[in-house]
């Protein structure tokens, strides 16, 4: 099927439901197609998109004077569709997509907290990101809210009035976990209801690492925004920075040099390999198989040291910049990588054989933390969480961007398993796919510049970035204001859709298996909290 061959059928369905498309454009936010509709039709457009089979992939708002522009990202067969509408700032009321898309639940509540938009038929009116850091009636992403907040209000009170869902019944008890944890990890609260050792309900409470990313992005220049994007989620610094730069470059009508694009992909695949190595060891460690974390941590450390030697930073932070790259290792430095890949492949072959044939490991991971494909589809699960449960979407394959548009990207997909073992095996296979991609990129690495100056974007120029990070699809929206400064920045991490799945994954499992279920998902607290 060619790009957007399906769109006419979807628009015909909208017409049948008397949903008026006021304007459509394929150029405003390419490669997405944008449809502008009336606010009153927002819910019906989402309902028809759900019935049609579109994946719901995000929502964001943008203030302009006394109006709020609202956008919703949808995906179908690799094509991106953006619905847009406008609301008066004084009465921002909009139908919800959550009745048709469970994935829309938390993102809509986030927009509610940050902009004051009321989603009329949303099934959950509780705040999400607000906690107690700012008073009722204050909305941080509106223009009248100061970047520094309201220091005169004094110390933030404890958030002890949040109404968790309770399960009633004989023998049911509650276990609160977090937000402060025993390990050196980010904060997040998990409220369990259990009978004996069996979990019958889990509710997450996140938002503790909210940093005001979107607010402090305002009025930055492109290079400063790229640095900020690299800190949305530190373990995904390459992917988030690339998505932000891609959005800015598209808004400015600029294409970076071919060598820079190829090396960006090398960086992204190295980031993917590094994190997967760490996760495989950590999953095994959570069930007491310490041998694996020793071995995979060692391999990851070797990998990150090489990244530091090549690109100046273990996590390759701040290497991607608007217009290209900040540094080029040069052909001599890159020439050592194929030999290192061969050594890594040899070690992985032995280690993977051990993991695939270890009865005590199988006993803890097989059939633990199952996520049905239908549930994964409803939540829009991405990356290894989605692929372990039959959801094969990968931006590199389904909506390829340079240099992946000239590479064959084949990702592993498990149609039925959906357990911890499947999520670990997806990671194992993705490491090998990434090694192949890097080797192909290095064989055909273009000569020439690694960076050119990006022209100043026009006032109100917009762009989107779509990059396959190691957790899955990262989406970014950027709008420029005057003199090439940032007027709006919205980064959407895949963790928005993988975190809710954990609440389903852990059901009917024993409480002691929660850590390994959690690690098999490994959502980013920081990437979700913004």
Topology:
Blueprint: H1 7-16, E1 21-25, E2 33-37, H2 42-52, E3 55-64, E4 67-76, E5 79-88, E6 93-94, H3 105-115, E7 118-119, E8 172-177, E9 189-195, E10 198-205, H4 213-216, H5 222-229, H6 237-251, H7 258-285, H8 290-311, E11 320-321, E12 324-325, H9 330-334, H10 337-356, H11 359-365, H12 373-379, H13 383-387, H14 395-398, H15 420-443, E13 462-469, E14 472-480, E15 486-492, H16 495-505, H17 514-521, H18 525-529
Helix pairs in contact: 5-6, 6-7, 7-8, 7-15, 7-17, 10-15
| Inertia-based shape | globular
**What is the correct CATH architecture of the largest domain?**
Orthogonal Bundle
Radius of gyration: 23 Å
The secondary structure category is alpha+beta
In terms of per-residue confidence, which ranges show pLDDT below 50 for 5 or more consecutive residues?
none
Determine the CATH topology of the largest domain: Cytochrome-c3 Hydrogenase, chain B
Per DSSP E runs of 2 or more residues, the count of β-strands stands at: 15
The figure for the number of domains is 2
The major sheet is characterized as: 5 strands, mixed
CATH superfamily of the largest domain: Cytochrome-c3 Hydrogenase, chain B
The CATH class of the largest domain is Mainly Alpha
In helices, the fraction of residues equals 25-40%
The end-to-end distance, rounded to whole angstroms, is: 36 Å
In percent terms, what proportion of residues is strand? Answer: 15-25%
Strand line-up across the major sheet: 1-2-5-4-3
Please tell me the overall pLDDT.
96
Separate helix tally: 18
Protein name: Hydrogenase-4 component G
Keywords: NAD, Oxidoreductase
GO molecular function, one term: oxidoreductase activity, acting on NAD(P)H
Pfam family, one: Complex1_30kDa
């Amino acid at each position: 099927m060619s790009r957007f061959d399906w769109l006419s059928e979807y628009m015909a369905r909208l017409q049948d439901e008397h949903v008026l498309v006021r304007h459509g454009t394929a150029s405003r936010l390419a490669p997405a197609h944008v449809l502008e509709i009336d606010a009153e039709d927002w819910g019906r457009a989402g309902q028809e998109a759900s019935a049609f089979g579109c994946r719901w992939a995000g929502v964001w708002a943008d203030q302009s004077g006394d109006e709020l522009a609202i956008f919703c990202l949808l995906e179908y067969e690799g094509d991106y569709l953006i619905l847009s509408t406008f609301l008066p700032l004084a009465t921002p009321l909009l139908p919800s997509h959550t009745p048709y898309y469970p994935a829309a639940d938390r993102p809509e509540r986030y927009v509610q907290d940050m902009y004051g938009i009321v989603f009329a038929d949303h099934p959950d009116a509780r705040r999400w990101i607000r906690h107690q850091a700012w008073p009722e009636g204050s909305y941080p992403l509106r223009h009248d809210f100061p970047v520094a907040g309201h220091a005169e209000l004094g110390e933030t009170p404890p958030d002890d009035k949040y109404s968790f869902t309770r399960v009633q019944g004989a023998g049911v008890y509650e276990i609160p976990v977090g937000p402060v944890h025993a390990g050196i990890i980010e904060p997040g609260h998990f409220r369990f209801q259990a009978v004996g050792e069996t979990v019958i309900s889990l509710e997450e409470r996140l938002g503790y690492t909210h940093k005001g990313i979107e607010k402090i992005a305002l009025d930055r220049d492109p290079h400063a925004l790229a640095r900020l994007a690299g800190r949305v989620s530190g373990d995904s610094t390459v992917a988030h920075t690339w998505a932000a730069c891609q959005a800015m470059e598209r808004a400015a009508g600029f294409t970076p040099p071919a060598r820079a694009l190829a090396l960006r992909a090398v960086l992204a695949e190295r980031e993917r390999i590094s994190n997967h190595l760490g996760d495989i060891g950590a999953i095994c460690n959570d069930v007491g198989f310490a041998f694996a974390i020793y071995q995979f941590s060692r391999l990851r450390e070797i990998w990150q040291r090489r990244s530091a030697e090549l690109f100046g930073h273990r996590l390759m932070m701040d290497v991607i910049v608007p217009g290209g790259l900040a540094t080029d290792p040069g052909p001599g430095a890159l020439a050592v990588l194929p030999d290192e890949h061969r050594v890594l492949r040899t070690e992985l072959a032995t280690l993977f054989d051990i993991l695939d044939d270890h009865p005590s490991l199988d006993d803890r991971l097989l059939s633990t933390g199952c996520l049905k494909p239908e549930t994964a589809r409803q939540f829009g699960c991405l990356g290894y969480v989605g692929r372990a449960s039959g959801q094969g979407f990968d931006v590199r394959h389904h909506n390829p961007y340079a240099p992946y548009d000239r590479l064959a990207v084949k990702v592993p997909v498990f149609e039925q398993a959906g357990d911890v073992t499947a999520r670990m095996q997806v990671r194992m296979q993705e490491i090998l796919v990434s090694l192949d991609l890097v080797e192909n990129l290095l064989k055909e690495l273009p000569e020439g510049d690694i960076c050119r100056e990006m022209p100043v974007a026009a006032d109100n120029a917009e762009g989107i970035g779509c990059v396959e990070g190691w957790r899955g699809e990262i989406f970014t929206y950027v709008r420029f204001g005057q003199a090439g400064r940032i007027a709006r920045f919205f980064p959407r991490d895949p963790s928005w859709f993988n975190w809710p799945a954990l609440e389903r994954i852990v059901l009917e499992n024993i409480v002691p298996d929660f850590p390994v279920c959690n690690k098999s998902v490994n959502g980013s607290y920081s990437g979700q909290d913004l």
